[in-house]
Amino acid sequence: MADNDDIPFNRDFPLKPGVVDEPRPGVRRVLCNNPSPFTFTGTVSYIVGKGNVAIIDPGPDDEAHAKALLDAVRGETVTHILVTHTHRDHSPNTARIKAATGAPVYAEGPHRASRPRFESEKHNPESGADRDFRPDIAVKNGDVIEGQGWALEAVATPGHTANHLAFAWAERKINFVGDHVMGWSTSIVAPPDGSMIDYMASLARLEAREEDLYFSGHGPEIPEGPRYVRFLTRHRQAREASILHRLAKGEADIPTMVRAIYIGIDPRLTNAAGYSVLAHLEDLVARGIVATDGDPVIGGTYRMAS
């Protein structure tokens, strides 16, 4: 949600849908034509290597994008398909690419929530989850996926989703970070799909690594990745402080907190902002700093713990 001045966002991303560019040797990217307030100019799919290649994040259920990806690798062999996470703007096109190439699919696992759903929570059909996705090969943190001329280490980065992975090309100091880190905006962390506790831990995990150039699921590449991650961490800490500042004045529900904290937000993002506040509140309740009656849910009322 692009509502803050403290992060050095870069919204300069002139890549056009279906066009292939090569921002670094051995890294090509193709933009899908699915722009929105949540996807920026669209989902970016990556092609790693030359000759025998991997495709990272085939994108949404979009035939034109699948064709553009397959055109980009014409005369080459796709040996691996890698998926960072199971949101509908990243994984559904996997089936088309697999059918055309026969390449095995690597991912952490099927979609799952970060925690069990509370009784009082209604299932949200618009969560954007791809519940049909199944990898051929389940990958865990530290696993290395090797191809011709490249090796990618899986880095578990839960938070945006429970099954989120980044893929680090350590030799090149490049990390394909999916939606965990984006250069154009902060990531959405919406419980029960996402978890702020996990998200913050995953930021720390990335910051401790050597890779300094990040390629994201949306928007331009991010130079000085660990430094950028520190901005994101500080931003979330400031967001938490804003919530506590509001609750110090008295108990409040989430819409009240959103109005107090997200000044001038795009109205299309208000719902997402509410879930982001909920993610912080879940963390604060777990730490005993904030209290609520019953489970921490989107419709709850919150107060400082005595």
From TrEMBL:
Residues 41-218 form the Metallo-beta-lactamase domain. Residues 104-134 are annotated as: Disordered. Pfam families: Lactamase_B, WHD_BLACT. InterPro entries: LACTB2_WH, Metallo-B-lactamas, RibonucZ/Hydroxyglut_hydro, Sec-metab_biosynth-thioest, WH-like_DNA-bd_sf. Gene3D superfamilies: Ribonuclease Z/Hydroxyacylglutathione hydrolase-like, Winged helix-like DNA-binding domain superfamily/Winged helix DNA-binding domain. GO terms for molecular function: hydrolase activity. Residues 116-134 have a biased composition (Basic and acidic residues). Keywords: Hydrolase. PANTHER family: ENDORIBONUCLEASE LACTB2. This is MBL fold metallo-hydrolase. It comes from Bradyrhizobium lablabi.
